[in-house]
């Protein structure tokens, strides 16, 4: 796809990437997807109170300028011609909300992170108005009602920040997710800034009609938001504008994508049926459904995978969003002072390798004739179940009022047991999403395909953890050795715009080496563990309902001791129904054939 106009690495594409933790700029070779130069800076997370998460938009823009300049200089140091950079792409964490004054270019408030829970009061009020129907707007948006989407954050800002309300009244306010904020600044800001977004980021606002792929006036009316503050919606692959300052002056911005959709594309999951899991502080599991737009009946998000051009067909996805995954481990480490580093904690490694309470699978590090106390505790760790619903549960439950819970504590519980339960919780949450995928695609032939999940993200770098999650879920995990799947995804989108990359070329030339992890556990054992998890989630959803607690605990204990109890209890009722039906048939027969 590259011709002789460029150097030995072919045409280059720069990617401006803002995640939940870092701001970075990467320069890719479109010839083989190699990252030639990059620079990143850690973002400052602003937390005023529990559940709140903010970023300074001005700081993000300043960091991005520094990242661009440093990566550009690094390219020069490597004696690679920076004039080979033919385009820039933008990829960002979806849902993070920014409002700014279009006349001054100054933010009206800090950017509110996607997982920020401050808009719960707005969500609660809206749910009361729609009789607690969390799927009230799903037919238009593909989304449940949840405070993680931008519409709720805008509403909160309008009600809580006077500067926002005043700016909207004076028609000075612009809204955007982080892609819009970067795009507007890169293309000139106050002087000539382009106010646009892409279809994947627009979808996550809960204001875009998924069928028309445009802003929906009725949705804006429902949320009581002004439609004139919203950016123009465009595809993932087209010229959004041109960089008007800095070392990339005049370079077109040719691709924009939300982070998770970009991961799906960057992991080369471009066919219907392929799925990807990205495990960072949060966790997202996406299933590519091709051009088929599936409405979920099982708590998933119907979203956009990609649209590679204004006239190109839109590919859709089903998505499960998990709010607390890696962040649960961070909580254990920072709040409870537990050592959660797997590679530096032999007890945790042993705990992960000894799969949950099955004495026949105790780690080889424990002699079969000398099971010490430490190994015994590891073998019983299944007694601990942790549900990390710190500020509610997302897919597939979408319950803002759920709260975290730990079940099974005893005097023998250790820090390693709690750590294991945290990692186990991530595996179970992913498993629930994958099972929801199956229920939402009943016409797909699941029986003929072996369950495979493409795995990535910061926490996927730990081999022990990936194997453990494979054991928990019973799925084969493939871990491509791709440094930044989201960056690669938007690079492909920008490359399509510039005519230097195609999906066929990317599939052939960008496929990296892949590590494969197969489950080593039995279905029966996984089923027992999942039943315990499912029970814990139900307690988590009804954590403030004390009336039936003791009865529920007793029932669960009985089921654990006797899994066939429910079947036997149903036998008398079944016999009664059968005999009653037989008596009715006999009565009708005697009525039609009286005895003489």
TrEMBL record:
Keywords tagged on the record: ATP-binding, Glycerol metabolism, Kinase, Membrane, Nucleotide-binding, Transferase, Transmembrane, Transmembrane helix
Annotated EC: 2.7.1.30
Superkingdom, taxonomy of origin: Eukaryota
GO cellular component: mitochondrion
One Pfam family of this chain: FGGY_N
Gene Ontology BP, a term: glycerol catabolic process
GO molecular function: ATP binding; glycerol kinase activity
Cross-referenced PROSITE patterns: FGGY_KINASES_2
Keyword ATP-binding: yes
SUPFAM superfamilies in the record: Actin-like ATPase domain (SSF53067)
Transmembrane domains' residue ranges: 486-506, 571-590
Pathway stated in the Swiss-Prot or TrEMBL entry: Polyol metabolism; glycerol degradation via glycerol kinase pathway; sn-glycerol 3-phosphate from glycerol: step 1/1
EC top class named in words: transferase
PANTHER family named among the record's database cross-references: GLYCEROL KINASE, SUGAR KINASE
Assigned protein family: Belongs to the FGGY kinase family.
Protein name per the record: glycerol kinase
Gene source species: Drosophila guanche (Fruit fly)
Source organism phylogeny: Eukaryota, Metazoa, Ecdysozoa, Arthropoda, Hexapoda
């Amino acid at each position: 796809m590259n011709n002789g106009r460029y150097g030995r690495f072919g045409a280059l594409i720069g990617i401006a990437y803002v995640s939940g933790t870092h701001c970075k700029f990467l320069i890719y070779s479109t010839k083989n997807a190699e990252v030639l130069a990059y620079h990143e800076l850690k973002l400052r997370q602003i937390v005023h109170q529990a559940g709140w998460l903010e970023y300074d938009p001005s700081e993000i823009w300043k960091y991005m300028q520094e990242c661009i300049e440093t990566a550009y200089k690094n390219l020069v140091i490597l004696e690679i011609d920076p004039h080979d950079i033919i385009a820039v792409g933008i990829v960002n964490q979806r849902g993070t909300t920014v409002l700014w004054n279009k006349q001054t270019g100054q933010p009206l408030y800090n950017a509110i992170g996607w997982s920020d829970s401050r808009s719960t009061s707005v969500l609660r009020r809206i749910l009361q108005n729609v009789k607690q129907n969390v799927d009230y707007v799903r037919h238009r948006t593909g989304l449940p009602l949840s405070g993680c989407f931008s519409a709720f954050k805008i509403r909160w800002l309008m009600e809580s920040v006077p500067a926002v309300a005043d700016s909207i009244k004076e028609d000075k306010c612009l809204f955007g997710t982080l892609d819009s904020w970067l795009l507007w600044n890169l293309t000139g800001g106050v002087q000539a800034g382009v106010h646009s977004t892409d279809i994947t980021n627009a979808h996550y606002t809960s204001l875009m009609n998924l069928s028309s792929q445009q802003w929906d006036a009725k949705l804006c009316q429902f949320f009581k938001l002004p439609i004139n503050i919203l950016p123009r919606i465009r595809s993932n692959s087209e010229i959004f504008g041109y960089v008007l300052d800095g070392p990339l002056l005049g370079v077109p911005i040719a691709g924009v994508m939300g982070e998770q959709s970009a991961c799906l594309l960057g992991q080369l999951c471009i066919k219907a049926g392929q799925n990807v899991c990205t495990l960072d502080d949060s966790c997202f599991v996406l299933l590519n459904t091709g051009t088929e737009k599936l409405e979920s009946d099982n708590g998933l998000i119907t979203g956009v995978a990609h649209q590679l051009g204004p006239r190109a067909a839109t590919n859709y996805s089903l998505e499960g969003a998990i709010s607390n995954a890696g962040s649960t481990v961070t909580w254990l480490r920072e709040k409870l002072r537990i050592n959660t580093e797997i590679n530096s904690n032999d007890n945790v490694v042993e705990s992960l390798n000894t799969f949950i309470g099955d004495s026949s699978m105790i780690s080889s590090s424990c002699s079969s004739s000398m099971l010490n106390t430490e190994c015994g505790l590891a073998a019983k760790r299944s007694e601990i179940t942790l549900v990390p619903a710190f500020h509610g549960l997302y897919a597939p439950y979408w319950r803002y009022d759920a709260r975290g819970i730990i079940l099974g504590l005893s005097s023998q519980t250790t820090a390693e047991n709690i750590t294991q339960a945290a990692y186990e919780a991530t595996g179970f949450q992913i498993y629930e999403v994958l099972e929801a995928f199956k229920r939402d695609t009943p016409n797909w032939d699941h029986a003929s395909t072996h369950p495979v999940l493409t795995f990535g993200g910061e926490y996927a770098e730990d081999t022990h953890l990936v194997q453990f999650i494979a054991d928990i879920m019973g799925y084969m995990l493939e871990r491509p050795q791709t440094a930044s799947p989201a960056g690669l995804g938007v690079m492909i989108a920008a490359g399509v715009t510039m005519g230097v990359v195609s999906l066929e070329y990317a599939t052939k030339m960008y496929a990296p080496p892949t590590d494969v992890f197969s489950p080593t556990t039995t279905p029966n054992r996984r089923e027992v563990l999942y039943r315990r998890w499912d029970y814990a989630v139900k307690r988590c959803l009804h954590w403030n309902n004390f009336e039936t607690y003791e009865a529920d605990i007793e029932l669960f204990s009985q089921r654990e001791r006797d899994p066939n109890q429910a079947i036997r209890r149903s036998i008398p009722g079944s016999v009664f129904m059968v005999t009653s039906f037989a008596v009715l048939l006999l009565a009708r027969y005697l009525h039609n054939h009286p005895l003489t």
